[in-house]
Structures are given as structure tokens and as C-alpha cells.
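Why do we care about 3D structure at all? Because function follows from shape, and shape follows, mostly, from sequence. That is the central idea of this module. The next example makes it concrete: a single protein chain, its amino acid sequence, and then its structure expressed as C-alpha cells.
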Amino acid sequence: MANASPAAQPAVLSDLIPGSRVRDAALVVGGAALTGLAAQLAFPMWPVPVTGQTFAVVLVGAALGMNRAALSMALYMLVGIAGVPWFAGGASGFGGPTFGYVLGFIAAAALVGRLAERGGDRTVARTVGTMVLGNLTIYAFGLPVLIATLGLGLGEALAAGVIPFLVGDAIKIAVAAGLLPAAWKLARR
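And the structure:
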């Protein structure tokens, strides 16, 4: 499951941590826990709250790489479905208007992870592009479920489930664009 061979340059930041399967399992669990914790940083809005989840998802994707990040978000989803109240606002279970975003976390983490494996988190410009694509992926999954579960039109769904989050997402992307390339510079030292 590791993203780089021992002799090769690390593909993602977590490849700098020694170990193999135990490390990978700990990273997967840690990424899910980070996302669950970030979900509790919530500002209530209807129908979708503003949370730290999306920031955690893209950071987990970039730090863990495609495979571990996708597994981490799948674990996050499955544990939440099983009843652990770590979705936004302490929610758990299957379905609801925000569940499409949770599904999107898996795809977004995998995409961001794959792009990070290819250097998509090494410069500010690349990180911005990687994070924008990750956020668009989350919206691509979340919006149709929001429309279907609430019976909204596309315009209403965009107004409720995308537009209010654009400024916050831009801030999260800017933070990630500062953190990830800086982390790589530190790692090279």
C-alpha cells in the first residue's frame, strides 16, 4: 500500500515516515480521525454546515497519497454509517442531504492523493490547482445528492450547497498552498 519504494524519492509526505503496513494502517486510521475531528469544527447552516472536513480531506489526500487517503475516507464514512457521531454536527448514519459530500470525500482524497504523488503539492501553484480539483470533486458528489434528497432545482442547490462555501474553500486552499510546499522544503533539508 505504500506509495513509494524505499530507494525512490517519497511520493507523498507520509512516505517519509519509516514503516510499512503498520504505518499505513495508522495513517489510514489517523486520517479518518482527523476528518472526524475537523467535522466537529462546524458553523451551522442549512442544509450543509460549514466545517473543517473538506480541509482535512484534501490534506489527508495530499499527505497520504491516493490509496491510503481513499481508504482513510472510506473508513471515515463506514464508521460514521455504523453510528459513530463524527459527521458534521455530530451526525452519523446513512443518507441525508449531506451524505453526497461524504461520498465525495473518498473520490476527492483519492484524486488529491494521486496528484500529490505526481508532485501536485510541491509548489504553491500546483497545490492550488490540486486543492481546487479536490473541492470540485466534493461538490460534484454532494450537489446531486442535495438536489435529490431536498427536491431542489440546480440554482437552489448551488445557492445552498456551493456558493456559501466558496470563500471558506478559497481560504482553506490558500492555507494548504502555504503548508504543503513548505513541508516539502523542510523535508528536503
